[in-house]
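Slack export, channel: ligand-projects

TW: morning all. Re-posting the request from yesterday since it got buried. We need the structure predicted with the small molecule present, not the apo form. The ligand is zinc ion; the SMILES is in the block with the sequence. No rush, but it would help planning for next week.
GE: picking it up
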Amino acid sequence: MTTCRNALTVDLEDWYHICGTGRTGDVSTWDAYESRVTRNTAKILSLLREHRARATFFVLGYIAGREPELIADIAKEGHEIATHGHYHRRVFEMSEEEFAEDVDRSLEAISSAGGGRVIGYRAPEWSIRPHTMWALRVLRRRGIRYDSSMVPLTRMGDRSFPTAPCRIPTEDGEILEFPLTTVRCFGEHLPFTGGLPLRLMPYFYVLSRIRRMNAGGDAAMVYVHPWEFDLEQPRIELPRSRRIMHYFNLRSTPGKLSGLLVNLRFAPLREVLGVGH
Ligand SMILES: [Zn+2]
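GE: finished. pasting the full token output, ligand included:
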């Protein structure tokens, strides 16, 4: 086992929090949907307890408002509570003012739920883009010390984005960035440590890549969602690419996470970055 600690993160949202879809994108319908997030998160919490691992939970403010006990329970187990915004809106779909309002609302909901002081943010669907870098200033102004939303990919974030943790200056002081972990392959950066990429990649490939990173002193960042632990969730009509992103090979996530927890060292993101203490 290596001594390098990797960041373990959970994007705490429910089965209907899918960006860019018609019906479930309408916030006014959300209260009517069955809530499955508490029982799905319980599966993740039990795995973490079993392996004595702690993680960062990027909590959707809407969930903190709807299920405050869940947030308090997660915090009580020693995990870090950070924010995933309030209404799961992509940053590039909001104005600076709307983004600020969404973050404020999430921080209020998390604080009322007993989530403690929040210093980390992750954008829904990794939606920071070169033209929305103002988001980092908005976050820093609210006491957020790190962001974990940048993806160095051509199709999602931007190829120019960092591939390793770094400091980014804003008018209100610097913010730390922990970007999506990728591996260089055929001139592209390929993700492999969470979501669909983790479900697609063979487990031993993922483990050996992270081990190789750790041997070189670099931390990886792993991410999962509670709905990836729920084979019975209601299926939403989605375009093909989104259907694959959300439902393909869901049964592989618990086993893969469990294996990584046995073989690697993990910590909440703020501890890996060394901030907030
Ligand atoms: Zn999300």
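GE: first-pass observations. The first strand starts at residue 5 and ends at 12. The two ends are 26 Å apart (CA to CA).
TW: perfect, thank you
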